[in-house]
Amino acid sequence: MLDTVYRDFGTGYVPRWHGDIIDLAGAYLVPPRHTLLVALDAGDGVVATAALDSRGPAHPPNPRPLAERYPSGTTAQLRRVYVRPEHRRRGLARRLVRELLAFAAADGGYRAVYLHTDPSVPGAEAFWRSLGTVVHDEREDTHGGNGVLHVELPMPAPAGAVTR
Fold this sequence. Notes:
The protein is of the alpha+beta class.
């Protein structure tokens, strides 16, 4: 995860944005409605990560309408979906996201699945557009913004649910 914030984002570690990376247990393993998935390769170690928590987007820095639309507690926010560059385009991220969505559905308390992404990361925008609906593109803001793409993914039915 730290490799990603340095290499792909170019920001380096910023505590107010990346504190969860330093405290993975507190952010994703201890809270019962949160989870962290890790993909390992025998030769390369950790090659992909994906996490989910029950915190909606905060305002600021995110636009107020998004914070209101995706409140904490009922929003499953996908976070830290990262795949090392040499392991991309193999379906890892898609598989991890599918597992996170199943986790959210099984919880039963989530009403929406939300994430934000940096569209300047190669492949990020196309990947998330293939899975969900863009609900806000900060690149189109006339008042500024951080160039972030905000996406909603469809909430799957819980396993065993009958759908019509």
